[in-house]
Specification:
Length: about 375
Amino acid sequence: MKLAFCLFKYFPFGGLQRDFLRIAKECLLRGHEVNVFTMEWQGEQEPGLSITLLPPKGRQNHIRIRQFAESIIPYVKNHDLVIGFNKMPHLDVYYAADTCYQAKARTQRGPWYRLTPRYRQMVAAEAAVFSSQFKTRILLISSNQQAEFSRFYLTQPERFYLLPPGIARDRMAPANAADIRQSMRQSLNAKENDYILLFIGSGFKTKGLDRALLSIAALPKEIRERTHLYIVGQDSSTAFENQAKKQGIIDRIHFLGGRNDIPQLLLAGDVLIHPAYNENTGTVLLEALVAGLPVLTTDVCGYAHYIQTAQAGHVIASPFCQKHFNEKLTYSLSSAERFQWKKNAIDFSHKADIYSMPSRAVDFLESLKGKKN
């Protein structure tokens, strides 16, 4: 098949972007033609992909999004399927990496926000995918999102297809994990008895970096002085550096930027902390789990239930309580139970179906051959 893949922006360190690339590569392996349309591409280009850049002229993000969605129309006409990784009109299939915008706008913003041009544009783009008057098929990666989309847009249930997670197997702890752990910790200048906390993910605000910093500051002095938080992701750090300075923990905080050695970092860590405000899935939770890294996260993450099932850490229930999170972090570092969580995580990684998303997604695309909307 001739497939058009559409997304606003590609950069190597985004969860949506990694999912897009793994599905695209699976399509190429099966002999399909994949043409990518995007506003911006950062990093190396994948062999076999045809990439067309369509940079819009608008300065405001919602205007750029609208211009991009309009600009791709003549390019995608002659494709068997048009697959979007962001919400936009004229899609045959949408990969639902993002949460329901309408739900967030009504629960996290005041009424005035719904009068803005940005709100109108973003809701129109979402409605163009989920409204009952359209036929776009939706690849869900988190089952708890279907109810929200259906509540606002009356989306027919048969249009949803739930995918399993798609963790890359290179995240699994290898036989020489202990050696890799020691080498990576040395490269981070960590002492033998130091605690390494990891915070991984672009979008520091949404993923709760402010909460993570508060929890570091609240650690008992003897634990805090042995603890370092390594922050991995492509985002602005200024506000969080200022917060760390005010809390007197700037010497405990290390911003690493985007990294390509996440599997090695996961092996070097003692706990992954992910106190997200909002997270459709939280792929990094499963990446940590299969590496044997205990996790401390919030229940708003679509994949948090895997941590509970595997008994590989703590999941903080909503409504979020910072004091409770602080206590669980102290316990996670000071308790010997952390080592049992590590074993539980490794055991879970060998028996759970958490790797097959790309192949299942392409199976679904192939089932639509000749059924374009």
